[in-house]
Amino acid sequence: MIFEIIMQYYLVIIFFFIMVFIERKYPLREKKFSVKKRVLINLSFAFISFIIARSFSYPIIFIVRGIFGEDHFGILKILEFSAILSFIFSFIFLDYSQYVWHRINHSIPFFWTFHKVHHSDPDLDASTAFRFHFGEQFFAQFFRFFVIMLFAVQMEYVLIYDFISLFAIVFHHSNYYFKYDKILSRVIVTPSIHSIHHSRDFSEMNSNFSVVFSFWDRFHRSFKMTENVAMIKIGLNDIAENDANKLLNILVWPFNKKDKGS
Ligand SMILES: [Zn+2]
């Protein structure tokens, strides 16, 4: 299983560099900052956050898992679906839970202090897909753990969802002008609808929370479409653009007292 997980990350990194190349050829918006510098900052930030978040979350999850063991209550266990139905429902539950978790990050100030680091990126491209603060990653692990336990989702299905969703996240953050974006956005999250979520305008940012399937937003009436996506002002007003491009600044930003509650 470890080998499969490592392979998964290699393939995502290859897909990421393909998207970086495509973004340069078919850009959706004009860039404000150097791509090389931002890729370096966002990937370094992702690496540091990944290590810190998991160093703290894995031991706790390991202990809790040990307490409950394998034989715990779970909705999918009660329903006793066939393997294919169980996989489809697992995928749907996991994707819906990601929508709910994303909304929680926007509506509860404590979680927003971490998620705002992701939104502070003054340019939006494939590298933004990796820009998640370790605080957000840490709490996300527990939310996912709760969802996996509640629905009794098999670990293989979780890994398949993670694998597919990583590609989806890199794709919808990319600055790619995709010809069939509008048609595709009826089913999955595309660069144009996700760029509305990264707008500085509050009502635009408070929309399009979905991760893989876009219909969660339509179902909850949080879906938004704008004709002129290229004109959207990306980022946050709470932080200067140059500060948002400094690694140390964004690492400590959620713990900075004067910014609390912004
Ligand atoms: Zn968000």
Automatic annotation (TrEMBL):
Domain Fatty acid hydroxylase as annotated: residue spans: 88-221
GO-annotated biological processes: lipid biosynthetic process; membrane lipid metabolic process
Keyword Transmembrane annotated: yes
Transmembrane feature ranges: 6-22, 43-68, 74-94, 134-153
Alphabetized GO MF terms: glyceryl-ether monooxygenase activity; iron ion binding
Annotated protein name in UniProt: Sterol desaturase
Biological classification of the source: Bacteria, Pseudomonadati, Bdellovibrionota, Oligoflexia, Silvanigrellales
Originating organism: Fluviispira sanaruensis
Alphabetically ordered keywords of this record: Lipid metabolism, Membrane, Oxidoreductase, Transmembrane, Transmembrane helix
Subcellular compartments: Endomembrane system
Pfam families: FA_hydroxylase
Bilayer topology: Multi-pass membrane protein
GO cellular component: endomembrane system; membrane
Chief location category: membrane
Keyword Repressor set for record: no
